DNA sequence: CATGAATGAGATTTCATTCAT
DNA sequence: AATGAATGAAATCTCATTCAT
């Protein structure tokens, strides 16, 4: 969770607060104009601080990008496990994970696209840091798939490929939002995507199990968000 | 095929030749270092010409990027129909299309990633040009899906979502090559990905039909590449 | 002893103490990295105070340099007369003066070099202040030479030139310490330098007189440091 | 003679010419205001070129300083041997060398002072380059002293110390010009300084020999510049 | 008195673009 | 058509200095 991005300022609360200001401003600007067309002065102005101040909280401009990207990948790493934690059924856990992933992406659409566009603008070590976090997130999905497989709900198949297909579902929502936005809601997108992919990978037992889950949710007023395994 | 990129030089053959030199050099450099870290001088040196010459064939640096990206999306628009043209069976056409897409992406891995990273570095009008071509390519896939649906091979579902899922399969090979390269061959990736997606979308009739296609290919020594519907 | 460098703080003892802290830190840093590469923060950190504090005792950064340089030239003005005060013989006074000069320089090697390098970094009025003190020191040497001349110990010659030659002997020890350090001790340097210069300027009477002084010192256990005229 | 300072521009004549422009402007500005207070824009303006141009001939600002300082130390290394080359008499060679040294210093007064002030502003490797050249120059003087010693003209003494005393005579003319300028001509300074130092180091034979040289010069109308051993 | 966060002016350096040759 | 030297605008980053606490 700790970054190597070091600050001249000591007070950790202040660092937190200032960095937040900077990251919020930078995320928007980077998304609109890209990393290189955004100047430190732009960021400072939008954040309501002086240009020099930025350098009290960051060593170089690239650190701002790192901070922005870390924010996203750490949102993934935080939100997805949280969405799964109250469920024990393997299939439900997998579906919750994908759903949560899509929702986090939706909440950070700009930054997700930014991650695709700008990770290579980072120096190798910073880039590795981001990719490592991303891999950790993917492992959560992969583990959920393996659990389904062990429970006989998903047929034997290449876990890496399915993992990436699910991940790309989530990322795709951000990457192609310019195309989807006028055609689908996020909920429809999630349901349709899962429909296609799960239909392709569930065993007959898995299909039955999925139908049961759907029935249970339909009986409860509570809706899927609060269901228990 | 026609670009708005105008050149001072008249002789169209020379323009063709010089632009090719420039695009080849630029593609490699943009992929390695990104658009902004690559200078016109870098490109000129790698292309074996002077910096000034570039400006005889291009009005601004961004035009070079446009030329590079056009090259990729036009490769898509050229190769995918070609891979389908000798086939009439709707399912086979769809599978050939996806396979061809993946192969073109593989042949332009660097440039495909570049498209994700750098399309936003273009001015709005140039960006639109690229996105329009991309949409055209997607339409080829979408039409193939619709054809399958009409033939009762694919069940009713959201065509846009499936289209994008298939497109993301192809792009994913480039985007995540750093992850896949050590784990899968391109062929395995294509087969596994189609396996998952088709299993999820084919109707019972479609499943049967797919099995037939597979049997036919297995009987021929020719292998799938030369089979006819 | 009085500087124009004014302080916001009233308590003179505190001013004294704080300035000492600052000067000690600054001397070392300026010597190692030069005036411009040394930041106020560097100085403050090494002095164990805050950056803001420095500005309670100094009006601008240049004042710190002035303080540092004043410290050296005032060490000259203090130490050299002290080394002469117990002697009345003109030749001995001159030799003591040069010897003392060399020793003070040795004790402030870094700051002496600094004076050569950085006096010009001062504003004109501050620079003049330093040069004036330096001239005062030189006058001490010049007067000692004139005394020897009047006593018939040194032949008629250009006093300014000899003065500067003697001064440069002292300064040279600091300026070229990178060259001398591995070849000579300070004592050897002083003896050899005086040997050369005095041999060149003493009258026959002066030569005899110098021999007498040397004999006297040799007879006393006391050694030259404590001898009386 | 060749520097590591590399230029983007190929044409060596142009490089020569531009660098000369730059060095002339920089020498004056560095001398007046010091290295750090002089901006690249100042230099460019005084040289009558654009700021960007400077960077076609130099990689960093520090390279300009290196170029300026090299110019001086190379003038030493060029002029001093030239002043000696037509003479074979060891004492005459030594005197010519010192005289030439003083004249070169006089011609580069500003840059000589700059060398004292600013050598430490160079990075270690560049600094070493300068100091090495300086040592080479000193070796010329040292060798001339040794030759006199072997010929029995100078008494046994520490060659390093005498070398530096003679070097400091030359440098002193620049370092203390603010003091000397109103009191002495360069010629008087040279004669008086040599008078003092040589009187102190010549053997009786050397003294006689020096007198002979002086007589010979006095007999010729030609004056010392054209005399032969 | 002391602190240290904040400011903002200013310097170096890069590079797209032009243009004389 | 081609070259490559020259320009000059713009961006990053540093740091002396101030000032609220």
TrEMBL record, chains A, B, C, D:
Annotated HTH tetR-type domain residues: 16-76
Entry keyword Ion transport: no
InterPro entries: Homeodomain-like_sf, HTH-type_TetR-like_transc_reg, HTH_TetR, KstR2_TetR_C, Tet_transcr_reg_TetR-rel_C_sf
DNA-binding region coordinates: 39-58
GO molecular function per UniProt: DNA-binding transcription factor activity; transcription cis-regulatory region binding
Taxonomy, superkingdom: Bacteria
Keyword entries, A-Z: DNA-binding
Protein name: TetR/AcrR family transcriptional regulator
Species annotation: Xanthobacter dioxanivorans
């Amino acid at each position: 969770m700790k970054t190597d991005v070091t600050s001249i300022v000591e007070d950790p609360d202040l660092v937190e607060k200032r960095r937040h200001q900077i990251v919020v401003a930078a995320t928007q600007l980077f998304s609109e104009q890209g990393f290189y067309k955004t100047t430190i002065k732009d960021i400072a102005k939008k954040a309501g601080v002086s240009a020099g101040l930025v350098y009290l909280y960051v060593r170089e401009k690239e650190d701002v990008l790192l901070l922005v990207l870390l924010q996203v990948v750490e949102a993934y790493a935080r939100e997805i496990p949280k969405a799964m934690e109250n469920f024990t059924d393997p299939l439900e856990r997998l579906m919750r994970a994908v759903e949560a992933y899509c929702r986090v992406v939706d909440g950070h659409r700009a930054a997700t696209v930014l991650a695709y566009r700008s990770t290579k603008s980072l120096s190798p070590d910073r880039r590795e840091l981001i990719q490592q976090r991303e891999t950790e997130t993917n492992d959560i999905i992969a583990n959920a798939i393996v659990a389904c497989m062990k429970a006989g709900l998903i047929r034997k198949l290449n876990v890496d490929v399915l993992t990436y297909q699910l991940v790309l579902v989530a990322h795709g929502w951000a990457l192609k939002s310019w195309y989807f936005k006028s055609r689908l809601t996020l909920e429809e997108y999630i349901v349709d995507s899962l429909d296609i992919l799960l239909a392709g990978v569930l065993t007959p037992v898995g299909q039955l199990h999925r139908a049961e889950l759907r029935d249970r949710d339909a009986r409860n007023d509570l809706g899927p968000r609060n269901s228990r395994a």
